[in-house]
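Example for tutorial group B:
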């Protein structure tokens, strides 16, 4: 059986029956195409653990980070487990392969002062500026992933009598309702009144909340450019991405005393263990403050 044909079968199964997002399928395809290129014309039944280990070695030679190699193995493992489950092969060659060790990388968060400078550096005299300020304020206020932010529609933004909230659709199409603070709400209101109508007039009409200059839905790549331009205006020299605002939101909530379960719910983490990574960041800051401030710490 051809590996490429089986990969297509697995990806259809993953998208339709397991409900993985389009972005996840694109990432899976990239990893599995690399695996297919490595095994070449070998019969699927002849692939063994040695081949898998050699593949990981080749990825390391190509300069991939340990985290990327671990992810690549995870995708290949999922693929071969699917083949076993479907009775297409008799054994899983990845079963005995151990993922490379990885050090835990703590998420990069900006300081509150840096976030303030980033947000306030964005001019709001034009429809595009109003949009940029709104999406940056929203992502920091809610901890939204970039895909969640660009996937918002006008109907997802609603207000109720007690708490202003927004509905985010995360991984696996799971929805969650998160609060929106005053600054983000004011930025959204300004964009909806003075920015979005002007951008919408340049296109054919769409329910998407955030629009490009030609009236089409904003892309994830656009948001990367928006935040990097804002960082340059704010003289932030570290490399940041939309995910940096998510990290900053979580870190600042925990430093402010928010319960970890509340932060887990806001971020849409399936496991609280993922959220606990941010407690390590706040713990590092506490330790550093102690070492530099306490007279008997050194």
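The residue assignment follows.
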């Amino acid at each position: 059986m051809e590996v490429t044909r089986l990969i297509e079968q697995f990806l259809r199964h993953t998208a339709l029956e397991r409900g993985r997002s389009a972005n996840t399928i694109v990432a899976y395809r990239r990893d599995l195409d690399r695996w297919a290129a490595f095994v070449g014309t070998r019969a699927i039944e002849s692939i063994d653990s040695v081949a898998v280990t050699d593949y990981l070695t080749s990825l390391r030679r190509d300069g991939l980070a340990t985290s990327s190699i671990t992810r690549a193995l995870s995708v290949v493992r999922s693929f071969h487990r699917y083949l076993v489950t479907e009775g297409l092969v008799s054994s899983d060659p990845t079963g005995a392969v151990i993922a490379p060790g990885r050090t835990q990388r703590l998420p990069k968060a900006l300081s509150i002062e840096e976030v303030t400078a980033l947000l306030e550096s964005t001019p709001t005299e034009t429809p595009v500026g109003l949009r940029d300020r709104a999406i940056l304020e929203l992502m920091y206020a809610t901890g939204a992933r970039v895909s969640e932010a660009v996937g918002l529609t006008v109907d997802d933004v609603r207000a109720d009598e007690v708490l202003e909230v927004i509905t985010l659709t995360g991984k696996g199409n799971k929805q969650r309702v998160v609060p929106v603070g005053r600054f983000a709400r004011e930025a959204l209101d300004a964009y909806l009144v003075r920015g979005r109508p002007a951008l919408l007039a340049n296109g054919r009409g769409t329910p998407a909340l955030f629009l490009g200059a030609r009236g089409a839905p904003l892309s994830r790549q656009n948001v990367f450019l928006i935040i990097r331009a804002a960082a340059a205006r704010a003289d932030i020299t570290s490399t940041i991405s939309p995910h940096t605002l998510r990290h900053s939101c979580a870190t600042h909530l925990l430093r402010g005393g928010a319960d970890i379960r509340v932060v887990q719910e806001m971020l849409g983490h399936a496991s609280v263990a993922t959220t606990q990574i941010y407690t390590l960041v706040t713990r590092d800051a506490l330790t550093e403050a102690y070492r530099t401030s306490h007279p008997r710490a050194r």
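The longest strand covers residues 164-169. Compare this with the pattern of hydrophobic and polar residues in the output above.
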